[in-house]
Predict the structure.
Amino acid sequence: MKRILNDLGLVVEQYHAKHVLTNAGHHSVQIDVWARDGSGRQLALELQQVTDDEELYPRAVFEGATMVVHSLPAGQPYSELNKTVVIFITQRDLEGKGKPVYWYQTVQRDDPEKIMPKSSEFLFVNGKNRDRSTALGRIIADIQEPDPDLIQTEALRRWMKMLKNSAEGRKKMEDLLEMYMNQGELRLLFRQVKDDDITLTKAAKYADMSEDAFQAAMQAYEASQKS
């Protein structure tokens, strides 16, 4: 997300995989990765398979609107509303202009430089942009690279190797993602090991992982925080 938003100072404080927002009597939304940054801004990231523009753009708008509705509890003033950003990584260059990202936001018609405060933003990342001379292009190329040995992004390469190498690795990755994305337990264990509060052996046992797998996961997490 740092590279997509061109914000290397972005700090993600909370995130979930396969995050579901339910709407009684209406469409529900499942988001591949939902996150909240240090400013309270909500971020949604989707690897989008939809190729029909008439379906894709409204889907992004609906997802953003649903996130907005779910972000403001009853009784809170509208001034407490936080900005929402929807990011779709698409399979093709939506507008055929070769740009790495097409970025939409609400502006005043007579003065496009004036942006409506706290309005939703929508980014469509060009999945055809695999230019490895740029940071974003490398990430897009790596996401679509089937051979883990050719993936240049260290954290992603580690995850993919763990997934590919064995059935046990796939099971551990599913367990890891469930803990890490939903409860944050694994991240807590990483911190405890780093602070010498518990041993690596004990942390791996708590996580139901081998010490080597736990250490690899911890190194991948630390690398992801630096990327």
Summary: The first helix runs from residue 2 to 5. Residues 15 and 35 are 4 Å apart (CA to CA).
